[in-house]
Amino acid sequence: MEEFVVLVNPDDQVLGLMEKQQAHQNGLLHRAFSVFLFNNNGEMLLQKRASGKYHSPGQWTNAVCSHPRENEDYLDGAARRLREELGIETDLNHKFSFIYKADVGKGLWEHELDHVFTGIYNDAFQLDSAEVEEVRYISPADLDTEMKENPENFTEWFKIILAEYKDHLDK
Known about the structure:
Layout: E1 4-8, E2 14-19, H1 20-26, E3 30-38, E4 44-49, E5 60-62, E6 64-66, H2 74-86, E7 93-105, E8 108-120, E9 132-138, H3 140-149, H4 156-169
Parallel strand pairs: 3-8
Antiparallel strand pairs: 1-2, 3-6, 4-5, 4-9, 7-8
């Protein structure tokens, strides 16, 4: 099944739909969301992308990142992908939105108007193996160390979104 993204201008006004891979090849601005989940110990959930993904396979990233469908709001899309990828449900809080552009290799770009959500989750997962290879929680200090020592193990967009998230924590 072909997946489409919602193309937008910087003010989030809809310009149309485009097949996801084509939008990534052309680096066109589209809607996206990112979810950061934490456990009660303050550790962040990371997911390792499945090895069959067409870009950034086998790299670590935040709990969920994806695209709302046509006529789907950002929060509903984020909740849908939590169910689809991780097999979970939890309350989410909208933190901020921003625009970024990242080269993800193989001539592909993520150029997204990204809405960032956070939530708390402490229970079991039912992973979709086509999407997620594994998950783990990590402390902020250990994450910083791993990202400095092995940046190639993390998706390009996660590096950008995490920095933006930390910026918003400082405000």
